[in-house]
Amino acid sequence: MTAAEEFLGKDIAELDTPALLVDLDAFEANMRLLAGCCREHGIAWRPHSKAHKSPQVARLQLEAGACGITCAKLSEAELMAAHGIGDILIANQVVAPAKLARLAVLQQRARVLVTLDNPSVVPLMGRAAVAAGTAIPVLIEVDIGMNRCGVLPGGPVLELARAICATPGLDFRGLMGYEGHVLELQPPQAKVEACHRALSLLIEGRDLLQRHGIPVEIISAGGTGSFRITAAYPGITEIQAGGGIFMDAMYRHTCFVEDFHYALTILATITSRHAGHVIVDAGFKTMSAYHYPPQPLGREDLKLRYLSAEHGVFDILSGPGPRVGERLRFIVGYSDSTNCLHDRFLGIRRGKVELVWEILGRGLLT
Ligand SMILES: Cc1ncc(COP(=O)(O)O)c(C=O)c1O
Q1: Nearest 5°: phi and psi at 130?
Q2: How far is the CA of 89 from the centre of ligand 1 (A)?
Q3: 103, 110, 144, 268: least buried by Cβ within 10 Å?
């Protein structure tokens, strides 16, 4: 029996715990919303796949209108290309010669754009492409205020673009930035203004390059925490917002994103009960409190005290609390740091498992 056959058609009540569930109606509505927002603004949707790491989910995103997908790691891009995804952006720096060789060879299977933020990588990447007989399409990553990766705006962007354009094997395609530093800003107008300031740096970069005769085809930015603002910003050609397909408590409570439905839950069982607290069979190897704690669904009486490896400890805030053997669902705190703990998503509709998506990219970190 395949893993899928083991689960398909089962009622939620029959599932062993813990399990990672996706409410398919909510998931599909979330995808339609993201794809529709991009369509409305005449831009492309290239969702980040780091939240699902699953070629099956990527395929559904393409069917919903995505132009391709975004990956965080080369090995994820290799997996996606091996499963027929033909247009991929690695929104990260790839610098080691062994990886550059893999990236160059991968171009034979799919168009794999990569970001670059350091002039020292340019000749290495070019040589890898020439050795493989391919060309590597490159976006310059610009630091638009997050202070993580990215070359500084202005002169350094021009200098790097010139170096890329002058290097055989490299194909300069545009600019990328991630406005991760604005996601939690409040009030909403402050977030909009900070996001606009960040994105303006990409557009100024584009104008600078074009004034120097360097064509800029792609301007990529955007995440779930800012997708509406970024999609509407003039000049952006594609957005990377991805995790919104699942929605989680972090997006809702720290990024103030109201648009999506919660689609992702952990199903768990109460295994032990004490004065004032209960234990579930889902600790930090099953769910994550990184960025935001998991939320007991429909249980205002429970609050996370802590997660140890295989025990989730919840305080009973009021009333008798759940009994041993009772099954609860938890809204995922942060989808990225939770999904990578699991082998598969179980897609649920009308209380039954309708689809099983393997998380084949789990553990792919290189
Ligand atoms: C480079 C990059 N792009 C986009 C995103 C947004 O991803 P998501 O929409 O899944 O939150 C992130 C989030 O960390 C990121 O690092």
Answers
A1: -60, -40
A2: 12
A3: 110
Give tens-digit pLDDT for 149-194: 999 999 999 999 999 999 999 999 999 999 999 999 999 999 999 9
What is the distance between the alpha carbons of residues 295 and 223, in angstroms, rounded to a whole number?
Answer: 22
Which residues are paired to 273 by β-bridges? Answer: 278
CB under 8 Å to 158, separation ≥6 — which residues?
Answer: 208, 209, 212, 214
Predicted local distance difference test score (pLDDT) of residue 121:
98
In whole angstroms, how far apart are CA 70 and each of 55, 189, 220, 270, 329? 12, 28, 10, 38, 30
CA of 162 from ligand 1 middle (Å) equals 28
Structure tokens at 99: 């990886």
Q: Which two tokens stand for residue 67?
A: 């132009």
Ligand 1, atom 16, lies closest to the CA of 178
Are 81 and 106 in contact, with CB atoms under 8 Å apart? yes
Pocket of ligand 1 (CB under 6 A): 48, 51, 91, 178, 180, 223-224, 240-243
Select from 31, 37, 45, 48 the residue to mutate for testing ligand 1; criterion: most ligand atoms less than 8 Å from CB: 48
Average pLDDT of span 118-130: 98
Tokens of residue 318, six digits: 């009021």
Strand boundaries in the chain, DSSP class E: 19-23, 44-45, 69-71, 87-93, 111-116, 136-141, 170-176, 218-221, 238-239, 264-274, 277-280, 295-296, 302-307, 312-316, 327-331, 344-349, 352-358
Nearest to 259 by CA among 67, 37, 10: 37
Q: What is the structure's pLDDT at 242?
A: 98
Q: Whose CA is nearest to atom 7 of ligand 1?
A: 223
Ligand 1 atom 13: residue of nearest CA = 223
How high does pLDDT run on average in the chain?
97
| The pLDDT of residue 3 | 76
In the prediction, which pLDDT does 22 show?
98
Beta strand 136-141 pairing with 170-176? parallel
Residue 344 CA to ligand 1 center (angstroms) comes to 21
